[in-house]
Amino acid sequence: MIDLAHAAEAHHGVLALEDLSMFGRDPWWLVLIKAVFCFAFLMLTVLFSIVWERKVVAWMQLRIGPNRHGPWGLLQSLADGMKLMLKEDVVVKRADKVVYVLAPIVAAIPAFMAIAVIPFGPAGNEVSIFGQRTTMQLTDLPIAVLYLLAVASVGIYGLVLAGWSSGSTYPLLGGLRSCAQMISYEIAMGAAFASVFLYSGSMSTSAIVDAQEDRWFVLLLPVSFLIYIVTMVGEVNRAPFDMPESEGDLVGGFNTEYSSIKFAMFMLAEYVNMVTVSAVAVTLFLGGWRAPYPVSAFWEGANHGWWPMLWFVLKVQLLLFFFIWLRGTLPRVRYDQLMRLGWKVLIPVSVVWLMLVATVRALRNENYEFQQIVLYVAGAVIAVLLLSLVADVFRGRREKEAEAARAAEAEPFDPMAGGFPVPPLPGQELPPVPRRRPRGDRELIASGAPRPDSDGPQDGKEADGV
């Protein structure tokens, strides 16, 4: 069998295997309480995020925002939810009834399932709930991050099935857009996760947070963090990547034919996914439940007791503010730009960065000094850049020679072929247009008088005008 201890090397070079023995020992009623807490945490965060988003965007646009329901409009999202539940539930006649009803459920349930493996506090520092010592995490798995990717992939089916089952053209286009967008961005997201696996030596969320004790992965793996930030915005269909539900060209996208509680479930799934991807970013790159540096350096008890939950919630709220900031700042991109960014930029960059991280980890495992690793990596990067420069020079020279050969072989283009003006085909050029004389050199010429630059009368007429 493969020695798992060697596959689970921690970032400081000590071989260790994550200890998950503290999970799975809670009584059933405590598991139920923790599950209800995770559900309530997501719901309350969503209700707050909707109000916060409308307030922040209104502040950015010099508006007032919601200020009627509750103090300072804090109950606006609750009022919106009640309004959606009380609206008429319309079912399209040509829709596939079973799939049409199940699609919002399929989109919403996976969004709630991902929070189960997110640690709100240290696994080794248990808290007391009704006299029972337990961890501040529902459960953990040796492959917890793969579980997160799998759950996020299931949520795509809800959007695709919603667009297909509506029996309408625009929802179908929105569902196809959503499927293509999420699949393309999940590839780069998985490569960003793989860099974290290589550096932490584990796929367990609690072990990944423990590996960030000395330094957060946002400092060690900045490229992976930036790739994940971009992909998480595309994953949840938020502006500027909200193409599956762009109102301008798709009316409303995959949820065009939905109303009442089913539309509310799609909206709930979007905001719950925002909270989930933010929690994953905090766990993998921002130290998880750990207090930021100034606090942890001067306060020994910052990462004990119930305080870790406060740091975790604050980090999640900062990332939610980042979502809102993007929506109020950037315009929506075109769909071809969205797909080009995913396939031609994010995926190649993430793969190259993953290979670089793997090389550094392999050199560290061989006990190479840090200076030697920097020299090797810098030399490899310079060599690749030089090779690409030489390839670009030769490619440009060949393209110019081929273009010159095509121009020499091309027949002269006649724009009046057949008696009608026709546009040039690819590779053809219009004949040069005779330049007009400068305005200062023009003179008024009387009708029938000879031109200054001609030797005789104009238009074949005699000088006497006959």
TrEMBL record:
Catalyzed chemical reaction(s): a quinone + NADH + 5 H(+)(in) = a quinol + NAD(+) + 4 H(+)(out)
Region Disordered, residue ranges: 406-466
Function comment: NDH-1 shuttles electrons from NADH, via FMN and iron-sulfur (Fe-S) centers, to quinones in the respiratory chain. The immediate electron acceptor for the enzyme in this species is believed to be ubiquinone. Couples the redox reaction to proton translocation (for every two electrons transferred, four hydrogen ions are translocated across the cytoplasmic membrane), and thus conserves the redox energy in a proton gradient. This subunit may bind ubiquinone.
The encoding gene: nuoH
KW Translocase (keyword) present: yes
Root EC class: translocase
NCBIfam families: PRK06076.1-2, PRK06076.1-4
EC nos: 7.1.1.-
PANTHER family the record matches: NADH DEHYDROGENASE SUBUNIT 1 (PTHR11432), NADH-UBIQUINONE OXIDOREDUCTASE CHAIN 1 (PTHR11432:SF3)
Biased composition (Basic and acidic residues): 452-466
Keywords: Cell membrane, Membrane, NAD, Quinone, Translocase, Transmembrane, Transmembrane helix, Ubiquinone
Subcellular location: Cell membrane; Membrane
Membrane-spanning segments: 28-52, 98-121, 141-162, 183-204, 216-234, 271-289, 309-329, 341-361, 373-394
Superkingdom, natural source: Bacteria
Pfam family, one: NADHdh
Family indicated by similarity: Belongs to the complex I subunit 1 family.
Assembly: NDH-1 is composed of 14 different subunits. Subunits NuoA, H, J, K, L, M, N constitute the membrane sector of the complex.
Protein name per its UniProtKB record: NADH-quinone oxidoreductase subunit H
Membrane topology designation: Multi-pass membrane protein
Regions of compositional bias (Pro residues) in chain numbering: 421-433
Record InterPro entries: NADH_UbQ_OxRdtase_su1/FPO (IPR001694), NADH_UbQ_OxRdtase_su1_CS (IPR018086)
